[in-house]
Amino acid sequence: MDDRRVRVGVQVAPALGDFADVRRAALMAEELGADVLFGWDHFFPLGSAEDRTGRHFEGWMTLSSWAEATSRVEIGMLVSCVAYRNADLLADMARTVDHVSGGRMVLGLGAGFRKFEYEAYGYEFGSAGERVAQLGEAAVRVRRRLGSLNPPAEVPLLVAANGPRALRLVAEQADRWHTFADGEQLSAASRVVDARCRELGRDPGEIERSAFVRGEPREVGPDYLGRGVSTFVVLVEGPDFDMAEVRRWLAWRDVRNG
């Protein structure tokens, strides 16, 4: 029998509501028993391809407020786009939030994908290959900087990735891997990560694997679990920040974990 413990993450979108609504949703996620509380690193709400009209708050400032407001749940960004900040500065930001939270920070890194957000804030949107290379360089710099700061912090590094080059980076650098794949694509990507780990002499089991989920946990959960995922992330969006699906996944987690 698979004895991995299931974890549930909640991504609270800092959008489409007042900041008080966002804060209440984050506190509710912790109160309900979520294992991880994630923000996001966007400049505009998700939804239509170029929605610039809805209310929205900057992700890292929001995350720092959650570090003060919560007391138990892990917190992090799912994920921070490495193009938006100098990698050494990003490491220092994560280290500081880790100390504010009492050691609960998870640093999520990604290559970015919303071209219009880059352009709206004055960042260059390179090719997919260039953005993956930038992600790899940032991961190395982040680890190096984290090791040199005073006071230091041991912050788990989560990498969101799907493509072959990015999956090798997961095997090289990540403590946790977030995938956007499902079904057989997820299984194939997981096999790539496993193979790259073995090439590097690393135990693939060291990398915790997460994915977004929706639907009936008793049906969806075992399928994802069988494909290597053990952290199940539910997205909660404004303006209502409905926690009904979070409750269902937490109930399934508790039964599954015994």
Give a description of the structure.
With 258 residues, the chain is an alpha/beta fold. Helices cover 45% and strands 16% of the residues. It contains 9 helices and 9 strands. The protein has helices at residues 19-32, 59-69, 87-101, 115-120, 128-146, 164-173, 183-199, 217-226, 244-257; strands at residues 7-12, 36-39, 74-77, 80-81, 105-110, 157-160, 176-179, 208-212, 231-236. Strands 1-2-3-5-6-7-8-9 form an 8-stranded parallel barrel, surrounded by 6 helices. The radius of gyration is 17 Å and the shape is globular. The two termini are 13 Å apart. The model has no long low-confidence stretch (mean pLDDT 94).
Give the tags.
258 residues; eight-stranded parallel β-barrel; globular; 45% helix; 16% strand; 9 helices; alpha/beta
